[in-house]
Structure formats: C-alpha cells, structure tokens
C-alpha cells in the first residue's frame, strides 16, 4: 500500500491513511458476515430441495445478495489501495444499493426470523414427514437473519 503524502500536509496525510485503514477493516468485517450468509443460504436451499419442497424466494434472494456482495467486497479493495475520487464516489453509490438490498432482506425474513421454530416448521414443512431438517433449517434461518441484520 503506497500513499502519496508528499503533496499533503501531515494532518491530511494521516486522515487519509486512517480513512483507508478504516475502510479496509470495514470490508473485512463485511466479508466475515457475508460469507456465512452464503453458507447458511446454501444449506437452506439444499435442505428444501432434498425434502422436495418449494424453495422460498427470499432464500434465493438472500443467497444472491450475499454472493454478489462477497464479489463486490473483493473489488472494493482496489480503490482502498489505489484511491481516487471516482473510485470512492462509485463505492458510495454501490454501498447505498447494497444497504437497500440488505434492508429488503431483513424485511423479507422478519416474520420467519422473529417467530418460533414451531411456526417455521408449520409454515414450510407441514406437508412433509421430514421433521429432521425443519429444526436445523429453523436454526440456520435464525442465524442467517441475525447476520443479515449485522450486514445492514
């Protein structure tokens, strides 16, 4: 990481260094939250397909947003290292769009995330005899819901 500090005074140079380090830490935290959402979403999708159940659209949406967000996180490391006002302004717009996507997922999973596991089993597994997946899926869904809230 190389910073051009010669044409800035010391205070501005330190501010820029701390800003870049903060953004780097924020992106690492975002990755640490998005990657488990991908895994939990994939497990839910797998269990629903194994049970022969219709997959909820919100599970596919959570998986899609988490995958795209994780790829985006990889791309955001470039501006942190190379800088430039165009990079930072484009990141601001994309961050706002991802914030809206995570908020939408929070609203979509709200009823399932706050309800009991019995309600989850009744809602999704009422027509099947496979209750072994239902408790695991309920726990996965609740963990995924919590991580979605953290990602907002």
| Classification by helices and strands | mainly alpha
Summarize model confidence as the mean pLDDT. Answer: 80
- The number of helical segments is 6
- Compressed to H and E, one letter per element, the order equals HHHHHH
Helix content: over 70%
Anisotropy-based shape: elongated
Features:
elongated; mainly alpha; 0% strand; 152 residues
What does this structure look like?
With 152 residues, this protein is an all-alpha fold. It has one domain. 82% of the residues lie in helices and 0% in strands. It has six helices and no strands. The protein has helices at residues 10-50, 57-82, 85-108, 110-114, 117-125, 132-151. Helix 2 runs antiparallel to helix 3 (85-108), helix 3 runs antiparallel to helix 6 (132-151) and helix 5 packs across helix 6. The longest helix is centred in the first third of the chain and has 41 residues, at 10-50. The two termini are 28 Å apart. The mean pLDDT is 80.
Chain-wise SSE layout:
Blueprint: H1 10-50, H2 57-82, H3 85-108, H4 110-114, H5 117-125, H6 132-151
Helix pairs in contact: 1-2, 1-6, 2-3, 3-6, 5-6
Short description:
By secondary structure, the protein is an all-alpha fold.
